[in-house]
Amino acid sequence: xxxxxxxxxxxxxxxxxxxxxxxxxxxxxxxxxxxxxxxxxxxxxxxxxxxxxxxxxxxxxxxxxxxxxxxxxxxxxxxxxxxxxxxxxxxxxxxxxxxxxxxxxxxxxxxxxxxxxxxxxxxxxxxxxxxxxxxxxxxxxxxxxxxxxxxxxxxxxxxxxxxxxxxxxxxxxxxxxxxxxxxxxxxxxxxxxxxxx
Length: 197
Ligand SMILES: N[C@@H](CCC(=O)N[C@@H](CS)C(=O)NCC(=O)O)C(=O)O
What we know:
The protein folds into 2 domains: 2-78 and 185-190, Glutaredoxin; 85-181, Glutathione S-transferase Yfyf (Class Pi), Chain A, domain 2, CATH 1.20.1050.10. A 5-stranded mixed sheet has the order 3-2-1-4-5, covered by helices on one side. It is globular and about 45 Å long. The chain is α+β, with helices and mostly antiparallel strands. Strand 2 (26-31) and strand 3 (36-37) form a beta hairpin. Helices cover 52% and strands 9% of the residues. The longest helix has 27 residues, at 85-111. It is built from 7 helices and 5 strands; from the N terminus they run E-H-E-E-E-E-H-H-H-H-H-H. Helix 1 (11-21) runs parallel beside helix 2. Residues 9-10, 32, 50-53, 65-66, 99, 107 line the site of glutathione (GSH).
């Protein structure tokens, strides 16, 4: 299986999730501006949408969209697999919320042409992080166990810290806790984002 990714981008969540699941994969780096892979291949032939992540399964099936990829990875590992329909629905709910309500505004806060639109998007992100912080009663987003939604939220919090946003309690401690997971440390090192211990 191949994960098409860009270091530090939202694809880091899929990378973390693959490590957590214990799956074997190859990473293919994509240069987003040119849409070329590290070997100079045209990435739009893999994902015509042109953005990372894309996960190509061993049978050639191409998965795109973080929420779908993170749900698929969760389904592959007994310890990540939702236990019943409602658990699966809750995972989709969390992945959709992060994708639509945090990830997308984040992208606008980075790249919107007008400063006021950037500021509005940044406020939207901070409001959504506060919503998550207010609702968090356990060590993980969906309760006591790690889920692939934690991988996605971790990357959003990493972006928040990189954007000098103060993380509302308890998200600061959550960020440290998730960041210390061996699968997360490994993904950061593999993407060249953290020194090896
Ligand atoms: N809807 C997509 C959005 C993915 C996305 O925004 N990827 C960014 C990196 S974090 C990207 O590759 N952007 C390049 C572009 O949109 O041209 C998903 O959830 O997977």
